[in-house]
Design a protein that fits this description.
The chain has 255 residues and is α+β, with helices and mostly antiparallel strands. It has 2 domains: 173 residues, D-amino Acid Aminotransferase, Chain A, domain 1, CATH 3.30.470.30; 72 residues, OB fold (Dihydrolipoamide Acetyltransferase, E2P), CATH 2.40.50. It has 4 helices and 16 strands. Strands 3, 4, 5, 6, 7 and 8 form a 6-stranded mixed β-sheet that branches. Strands 1-11-10-2-9 form a 5-stranded mixed β-sheet. The chain is globular and about 65 Å long. InterPro entries: DNA_ligase_ATP-dep_cent. GO terms for molecular function: ATP binding; DNA ligase (ATP) activity. This is ATP-dependent DNA ligase family profile domain-containing protein. It comes from Domibacillus epiphyticus.
């Protein structure tokens, strides 16, 4: 088994439509690379024994890139469920949502344009014929329409990928853009820690709802250093965790 580092995303808050791009849903799970009888995370951690459902035996070798997800009652994915499975809860159901094909028949196809790789991936998914391994569908050009659907269905966001581009292992490329469906919230900061800088968040009922650890702009840092809690602010987050805390919150305005 050869470990290949996955191609990485750049962040982009610009929701756009463009005939030179394709767009696909962004699932809130764990990045995973899956071969015929093995799997590993984007960090190279082998997960084969923890995810036996993802093993398959084709007449030829392949390597798929995608996202490990678990179903949720109010969204197609559930980050907490994926975390539970990685920590040994074998009863947690999983699915692997493939979006790229890197190798086929012991040969790399990463230099092929993304459209061709997705065509080949479709055939591979049909050949695997597993209820646990599916392909993420994509649409051309209409990014704004897809993003609206993602927000309506409580999805994490969407990925924009430029047509005609190769797969660049280990590279964070502007050809792949991560566009998040942020939610915004008015909250209270009641405790600030300076080293490292962090801010504890509370709702209007004084319930703890998370901590901001990063994403501080120069202006936000200056205000945090000069103000004494409690005070209110607006944050953006990637929705809520199962423990009713804001997921990956960032401060965007201090009142």
């Amino acid at each position: 088994m050869k470990i290949i580092k996955p191609m990485l995303l750049t962040s982009d808050d610009n929701v756009f439509s463009d005939a030179d791009w394709i767009f696909e849903p962004k699932y809130d799970g764990y990045r995973l690379l899956v071969g015929n009888k093995y799997s590993y995370t984007k960090f190279g951690t082998v997960t084969t024994t923890r995810l036996p459902e993802l093993q398959f035996d084709l007449g030829y070798d392949v390597l798929l890139d995608g996202e490990l997800i678990t179903p949720s009652t109010n969204a197609p994915d559930n980050h907490a469920g994926s975390t539970s499975r990685f920590h040994g809860n074998m009863e947690q159901p999983i699915y692997f949502m493939a979006f790229d094909l890197l190798e086929q028949d012991h040969a790399s196809i990463m230099t092929l344009p993304i459209e061709r790789r997705k065509e080949l991936l479709s055939k591979v998914i049909r050949d695997i014929n597993s209820p646990y391994i599916k392909q993420i569908l994509h649409i051309p050009e209409e990014g704004e329409r897809l993003f609206s659907v993602m927000k309506e269905n409580n999805m994490e966001g969407m990925i924009a990928k430029k047509k005609g581009t190769p797969y660049l292992p280990g590279i964070r490329s502007p050809d792949w853009r991560n566009i998040i469906c942020w939610t915004q919230h008015d909250v209270f900061i009641k405790k600030i820690t300076l080293r490292p800088l962090s801010a504890q968040l509370f709702d209007s009922q004084s319930n703890y709802i998370g901590t901001v650890w990063d994403g501080f702009t120069k202006e936000i840092k200056s205000e945090l250093y000069s103000k004494s809690p409690p005070f209110s602010c607006k944050v953006k987050a990637r929705g809520w965790t199962s423990g009713h805390q804001l997921r990956l919150p960032q401060i965007i305005e201090i009142y």
